[in-house]
């Protein structure tokens, strides 16, 4: 078992992350920040990564006083060399890696005719390639005593919409990567899963409150009639990082207010 804290009477906290060593990418704001803080609050030792030193410092400050810890490493994960170096930094500072959350991504909205090849490639480099490189670089560490990989995909890794082909291709690829590596590592005590968020109020989606057309579209297309907050992904991520999900691998946990149930 991985981080298992079970007891005969079932009273132990199966979501406990005490002493687990975690890397969370895209931790300078949004969903990555919420997940990094939640892990530290559950006792994990976390390294949050992103480009913005200020954003990362803010995330670390928000985790002060948590039973675990939250350290940061500023880097541009679009470069494969930077990803490999980041894994080495995390391994050295934490003494290993048990949990890897591939969350950093950016978006690009335009029709396929209006999207340059260079833009398509840039989106793939961060949203898909960096996750593949990160998993490959961390594999010896993750397989050393059990591990968990959580890829933050999207409902747009499961269904399409118009004018978002570069992002949607990358997110469908990330779902495929999740399944493929889950099968490779199924007997190595490493679980690989994805979370598919619906609409979330973060920088990626822009100003929902100031853009009534977008806000109305999100309300209309989401059965629960609202968008979500980054903190609503902390629980699903803790579940997938903890012993509570030890028999779950290669799956996509969809957290979308019912969007993909239609
Ligand atoms: N928001 C939504 O509605 C939504 C819906 C479905 C899925 N998602 C997914 O959820 C995840 C988190 O998104 P979010 O909504 O929290 O977006 P966000 O607020 O824009 O956060 C993106 C994070 O990625 C980091 N990042 C961007 N480019 C990077 C680079 N080159 N190197 C390293 N880090 C980089 C950003 O930090 P820096 O700028 O400091 O580098 C930031 O911490 C993404 O995978 C996204 O695709 C979001």
Describe the structure.
The protein is of the alpha/beta class. It has a single domain, classed as Rossmann fold. It has seven helices and seven strands. It has a seven-stranded parallel sheet, sandwiched between helices. Helix 1 packs parallel to helix 2 (53-62) and helix 3 packs parallel to helix 4. The relative contact order is 0.15. NADP nicotinamide-adenine-dinucleotide phosphate (NAP) binds next to helix 1. Residues 26-32, 50-52, 55, 76-78, 103-106, 126, 152, 154, 197, 199-200, 202-205, 230 line the site of NADP nicotinamide-adenine-dinucleotide phosphate. Pfam families: adh_short_C2.
| CATH fold descriptor | Rossmann fold
Proportion of residues in helical segments: 25-40%
Counting copies of identical and different chains, the oligomeric state is single chain
| Strand order in space, largest sheet | 3-2-1-4-5-6-7
The low-confidence parts are: 1-8
The CATH homologous superfamily is termed: NAD(P)-binding Rossmann-like Domain
Shape: globular
Find the count of extended strands (DSSP E, 2+ residues): 7
For the biggest sheet, the summary is: 7 strands, parallel
- Give the DSSP E fraction (strand runs of 2 or more residues): 5-15%
Give Rg in angstroms: 18 Å
Mean model confidence by pLDDT: 95
Total domain count? 1
List the bound ligands.
NADP nicotinamide-adenine-dinucleotide phosphate
Query: How large is the count of helical segments?
Result: 7
The first-level CATH class is given as: Alpha Beta
State the separation between the terminal residues, measured CA to CA: 36 Å
Please write the string of helix (H) and strand (E) elements.
Answer: EHEHEHEHEHEHHE
GO biological process, one term: fatty acid elongation
Protein name: SDR family oxidoreductase
GO molecular function: oxidoreductase activity, acting on the CH-OH group of donors, NAD or NADP as acceptor
InterPro entries: NAD(P)-bd_dom_sf (IPR036291), SDR_fam (IPR002347)
């Amino acid at each position: 078992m991985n981080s298992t804290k079970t007891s005969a009477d079932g009273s132990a906290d199966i979501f406990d992350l005490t002493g687990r060593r975690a890397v969370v990418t895209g931790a300078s704001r949004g969903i990555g920040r919420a997940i990094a803080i939640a892990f530290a609050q559950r006792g994990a030792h976390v390294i949050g990564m992103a480009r913005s030193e200020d954003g990362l410092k803010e995330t670390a400050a928000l985790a002060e006083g948590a039973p675990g810890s939250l350290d940061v490493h500023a880097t541009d994960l679009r470069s494969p060399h930077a990803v490999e170096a980041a894994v080495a930094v995390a391994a050295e500072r934490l003494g290993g890696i048990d949990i890897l959350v591939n969350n950093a991504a950016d978006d690009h909205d335009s029709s396929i005719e209006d999207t340059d090849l260079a833009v398509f490639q840039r989106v793939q480099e961060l949203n898909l390639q960096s996750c593949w490189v990160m998993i490959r670089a961390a594999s010896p560490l993750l397989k050393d005593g059990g591990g968990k990989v959580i890829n933050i995909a999207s409902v747009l890794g499961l269904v399409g919409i118009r004018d978002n082909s570069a992002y949607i291709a990358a997110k469908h690829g990330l779902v495929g990567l999740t399944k493929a590596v889950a099968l490779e590592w199924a007997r190595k005590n490493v679980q690989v899963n994805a979370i598919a968020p619906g609409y979330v109020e973060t920088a990626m989606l822009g100003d929902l409150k100031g853009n009534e057309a977008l806000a109305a579209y999100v309300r209309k297309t989401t059965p629960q009639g609202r968008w979500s907050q980054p903190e609503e992904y902390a629980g699903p991520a803790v579940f997938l990082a903890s012993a509570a999900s030890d028999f779950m691998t290669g799956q996509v946990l969809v957290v979308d207010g019912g969007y993909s149930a239609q």
